[in-house]
Amino acid sequence: MLDEFVHEPRVAYFSMEIALRSEIPTYSGGLGILAGDTLRSAADIGLPMVAVSLVARAGYFRQTLDAEGRQIEQPAPWDPARWARLLNAKVAVSIEGRMVWVGAWLYIVEGQAGARQPVVLLDTDLHDNAPADREITNLLYGGDEIYRLKQEVVLGIGGVRMLHALGFRVRQYHLNEGHSALLTLELMRRYAYAPHEIRPGESLYDIPRVRELCNFTTHTPVEAGHDQFSYEIVQRVLRDVVNAEASRQGPGAMNPDAPPRGADERQIDLVTLKRLGGEDRLNMTRLALNLSEYINGVAVRHAEVSRRLFPEYPVHAITNGVHPFTWTCESFCAFYDKYVPAWRHEPEQLVRVDCCVPDEAILEAHDLAKQALIRKIQVLTGVNLRADVPLLGFARRMTAYKRPDLLFHDVERLAAMAQRYPFQILLAGKAHPRDAAGKRLIEELHAHARALAGRITTVYAADYDMALAQAMVAGVDVWLNTPLPPLEASGTSGMKAAFNGVPSLSVLDGWWVEGCIEGITGWAIEANRDDTASAAGALYDKLERVVLPLFSEAEKRPARLRVMKGAISKNASYFNSHRMMRRYATEAYLR
Ligand SMILES: *Cc1c(COP(=O)(O)O)cnc(C)c1O
Question: Closest ligand 1 atom, CA of 28?
Answer without folding.
Answer: 11
